[in-house]
Amino acid sequence: MKLLKDKIRNSAKITENRIIQVDSFLNHQLDITLFNEIGKEFKRRFSSKEITKIVTIETSGIAIASITSQYFNNVPVVFAKKHAGLNMNPNVYESKVYSYTKDQEYTIKISKEFISPNDKILIIDDFLASGSALLGLVSLVSQSSAEISGVGIVIEKSFQGGRKLVEEKGLQVESLAIIDSLKDGQVFFK
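RESULT FIELD:
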């Protein structure tokens, strides 16, 4: 997706040739025009799939999934919580995920009332790197016996190997920008 790649080239910051910061347009300040194009592109790539719900993980995935939902007839968006409060239903699906950027493990949860075995789920997330967060989401959906119709990723860091782990589960993975490497403050796309 050219618009996204241009935005990454012009606005992203690289740290230690392993972390790409996209705070100015993707996961702190949000470029809604870009998000609308991302939503349209996910609709194009998954147009042949039946989608009844979109599942993501807090926090960065929520805005992307919400805007994407508009292009799938406003299907509900369900997000996995990393920090469940006292008001969360205790009847949940849960899975452990490791955050590469925060160097921390989380238990993510989705209330069982929001995903049923009849659902056709599109998983949406901002990044695919090692695959931990994505595999956690796959686990939550699998626990519900819902069908995963596909996985939409905004930015994939292919050099971290997460795609292979997800594809081994037989899932269609569509990444809008695939980064081959980060070197000397520059991004190299696949």
